[in-house]
């Protein structure tokens, strides 16, 4: 859905040493995005027999890249030596308009 080279450029990853990990985090980010918006994402066209599908938009692509970056940079659940703070999630803001439960 999002080419690996685009994701690696976003993450500033060179070479192929981390490809499997990047692909895992990308798949997790797509899954998280689909669960958040309540829709199945498609690269080009939604099949006619799918009611709640959505062709991936630039906003959702950016959100998936942000989630992937977060997973890649924060590989552990606990950070020591700092105060835990939840940062505003731009990914949520980018995906919010596409949620089924708030569709106009």
From TrEMBL:
It comes from the Bacteria. CDD domains: gp6. It holds the Pfam family Phage_connect_1. InterPro entries: Phage_gp6-like_head-tail, Phage_HK97_gp6-like. NCBIfam families: put_DNA_pack (TIGR01560). This is Phage gp6-like head-tail connector protein. It comes from Vreelandella alkaliphila. The lineage of its organism: Bacteria, Pseudomonadati, Pseudomonadota, Gammaproteobacteria, Oceanospirillales.
């Amino acid at each position: 859905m999002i080419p690996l080279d685009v994701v690696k450029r976003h993450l500033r990853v060179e070479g192929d040493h981390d490809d499997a990990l990047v692909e895992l985090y990308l798949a997790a980010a797509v899954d998280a995005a689909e669960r958040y918006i309540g829709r199945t994402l498609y690269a080009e066209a939604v099949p006619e027999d799918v009611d709640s599908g959505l062709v991936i938009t630039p906003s959702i692509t950016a959100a998936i890249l942000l989630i992937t970056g977060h997973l890649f940079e924060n590989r552990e659940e606990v950070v020591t030596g700092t105060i835990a703070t939840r940062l505003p999630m731009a990914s949520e803001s980018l995906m919010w308009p596409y949620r089924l439960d708030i569709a106009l």
